[in-house]
Amino acid sequence: MIIFRLLDLVKFSFKNIFQNSRWGDDIKKLMEDPLWGYARGYNMLLWIGVVLSLMISAIVLINRGRRKDIIISQKWIYRGFGFFLICFGITVIFYLFAYNIEPYFDLLKECGYTFSIIAPILLILTIEKYMMTKTRRFFSIFSIGLAIFCIIYIFLSTESSTLRTITQSGAPVLMLIFVLLYIKVILLSIGKIRQKAIITFIGLLCIGIAIILDSEAVMLTGIPLFIAPIVYMIGAILVGIYQKMD
After folding, report:
1. 115 touches 138 (CB < 8 A)
2. According to the CATH classification, is domain 2-21+38-244 in 1.20.1070?
């Protein structure tokens, strides 16, 4: 049957591509300290704090979006930010597992990349639908297409450095698109709405900086590994608190 053939394909892909991962010496070096190594000891506790702050802020925002006394576009902004934070919370979870389950390292990281790409899509859709209609939803279509591509890539049975580069660069590209759109929203807003948008933007910048600090290239420079999760939590809290404030 077709279903069983698809399952066999998925099983083959995971077994031959993703389930034979090996940590490199540089990655092992990041994790060698049992207390402050990456995803080890106290560092793991900090990252758990990141996940909790992201999820709690997301719940606050999603509940905020259920209010009946706000306009529909604002409802979707709240929902979009909630979805954004949830996706990044899931991304962090995949990364923590990746640095603890060696054979599945590549698979788990690819799943993390995919959720980070999915994260800003709802916000991009909302901005283009309600605030920037002149873009004719070009960025929405592009972001959805890129997300679909990344999901398909997870199940491919062939490895390609080009395809991997596309998936790994997808999140920064979409985040850049979202940032540019959100800056436009800030410029179009006034008063307290603009103030809220600016503080939220600062929170998003904190999350972006944390993601950069959490990259292997930066971590291997010797930067303290506790900085990234702390900056991450600050960003999540700023987004959650200032979107909630009237």
Report:
1. no
2. yes
CA–CA dist 39, 187 (Å, integer): 40
- Residue 24 DSSP code: -
Instruction: Please give the DSSP secondary-structure letter assigned to residue 245.
Output: -
187 burial (CB, 10 Å; 0-12 / 13-18 / 19+) is exposed
What sign does the CA torsion over 130, 136, 142, 144 have? positive
> 209: phi > 0 → left, psi -120 to 50 → alpha, else beta; which?
alpha
- Confidence band (pLDDT; 50, 70, 90) for 5? low
pLDDT in tens, 131-187: 877 777 888 898 898 888 888 877 765 555 666 666 666 677 777 888 888 888 788
Average pLDDT for 106-119:
87
Rg, Å, the chain Cα set: 19
Q: How many CB atoms lie within 10 A of CB 91?
A: 24
Give me the amino acid identity at 72: I
* Whole-number Å distance between alpha carbons of 172 and 170: 6
CA angle 90, 94, 96 (to 5 degrees): 115
* pTM higher than the cut 0.90: no
- Domain assignments of the chain as residue spans, ordered by start: 2-21+38-244
| Alpha helix stretches (DSSP H) within 39-137 | 41-64, 72-98, 105-118, 121-130
Would you state the structure tokens that stand for residue 99, as one six-digit string? 């640095």
